[in-house]
Design brief:
The protein is an alpha+beta fold and about 150 residues long. It has six helices and six strands. It has one domain: 3-Layer(aba) Sandwich (Aminopeptidase). Helix 1 packs across helix 4. The longest helix has 15 residues. The mean pLDDT is about 95. The structure holds coenzyme A. Coenzyme A (COA) binds next to strand 5, helix 5 and helix 6.
């Protein structure tokens, strides 16, 4: 089932993030090239994104639950001026992938956007994310740009 986020979910969502984004994270790519930065690994940079999503819009976070266990989550924000909503983070624990939770979570976010009066929904994925690049077009998203991320040592 899909339900609204509760504050007691936060640590679990952070842990699922650390597991799921291993091969599909800019922070992990940085670590692969440069190692730890300021003693922090990629998980220590990526996990706080979820805390940030909670601060920005806890009401737009949905959780997939099975037998009382959190299987995955989606975070979202709404902009009532532009009427464009966005999905910064989505992940489903590998133990529960390919059972339709990803799809249900996106559908929950899209329904929430409609309730909030949004007209469009945005999402982004890395070119290296083979699941994202096939899944999002299937969910009706249309590609509008590709971006290159750079970093340099100071
Ligand atoms: C993306 C993710 C959330 C999908 O979750 P899920 O619960 O497995 O998704 P679903 O079961 O609803 O499957 C949705 C679609 O994803 C794709 N998909 C899921 N797992 C796949 C796999 N192992 N290989 C290829 N495609 C896959 C399929 O296109 C599938 O559509 P279909 O059911 O019509 O074939 C999950 O794979 C994940 O957490 N990945 C790591 C984190 C990530 O990439 N997040 C998104 C960042 S932009």
């Amino acid at each position: 089932m899909i339900r609204k986020y509760r504050p007691s979910d936060l640590e679990t969502l952070r842990q699922i993030t650390a597991i799921c984004f291993e091969g599909v994270s800019i922070d992990k790519n940085i670590e692969d090239k440069f190692g730890l930065i300021n003693g922090l690994d990629w998980k220590q940079r990526k996990m706080p994104h979820i805390d940030n999503d909670v601060e920005v819009n806890a009401d737009g976070i949905f959780v997939a639950e099975i037998d009382g266990e959190v299987a995955g989550y989606i975070t979202s924000y709404v902009n009532h001026r532009t009427k464009i909503g966005g999905i910064p983070n989505l992940s489903v624990h590998p133990d529960f992938q390919q059972r339709g939770f990803g799809r249900q979570l996106i559908e929950a976010a899209l329904a929430y956007f409609k309730e909030e009066g949004m007209l469009y929904a945005r999402i982004e994925t890395l070119e290296q994310n083979q699941i994202g690049t096939t899944f999002y077009p299937k969910m009706g998203f249309v590609e509008i740009a590709r971006q290159i991320h750079y970093i340099r040592q100071l």
